[in-house]
Specification:
It is a single chain. By secondary structure, this protein is of the alpha+beta class. The chain is built from five helices and four strands, in the order ααααββββα. It has helices at residues 7-26, 34-55, 59-63, 70-85, 153-164; strands at residues 88-101, 104-116, 124-135, 141-147. A four-stranded antiparallel beta sheet has the order 1-2-3-4, covered by helices on one side. The termini are far apart.
């Protein structure tokens, strides 16, 4: 065996050493703004709680997240219509961006879901983008919504179905 190490092997060893050192140095990084970080986590938890309350048809959990406004009143009617119309609702949110300005929080989400009236129903698949307007620091409440919302699929289905009937 030769005591010399080939150039490609040296390069591989050097790269492995650099990655190991980078991993050790990055693992001890502290959160620079812990209060802001905690608030973003509360916002994320509120978005997930909204999604979960909707798909499990938990009206009381949903109402606990809402700040009474005219926009929210319409949202509540749309949600109740979905609860009454669909046996199963599957919905996923992907948070694209969170914008915080004082007490106001805008969460931009991409969503996709499936709404079924029965187990044999192939269901209605939809997706879209929405802006969820939240307010609060410690307690995060939904005060408004904009965009292509996943709530109110029963109304959307009524608009879509006649176009496919002969």
């Amino acid at each position: 065996m030769s005591p010399f190490v080939s150039l490609p092997t040296r390069a591989s060893l050097a790269a492995a050493l650099l990655f190991a050192l980078a991993g050790v140095s990055c693992s001890s990084k502290e959160i620079q703004y812990p209060e802001d970080h905690a608030r973003v986590l509360r916002v994320d938890a509120a978005v997930e709680a909204l999604r979960k309350a909707y798909v499990t048809k938990d009206r009381s959990a949903l109402d606990a997240l809402l700040l009474p406004t005219d926009t929210i009143d319409q949202l509540q009617r749309d949600v109740q219509s979905d609860f009454d119309s669909f046996a199963e609702m599957m919905l996923e949110f992907a948070v694209e961006r969170i914008y915080i300005d004082g007490d106001n929080i805008d969460v931009f989400v991409h969503w996709h879901g499936l709404w079924r009236k029965s187990e044999t129903d192939p269901g209605l698949r939809q997706r879209g983008h929405a802006r969820l307007e939240w307010v609060g620091v410690q307690s995060i409440l939904l005060r408004g919504v904009q965009g292509d919302l996943p709530f109110g699929m029963r109304t959307r289905q009524a608009v879509i179905e006649p176009a496919f009937q002969k």
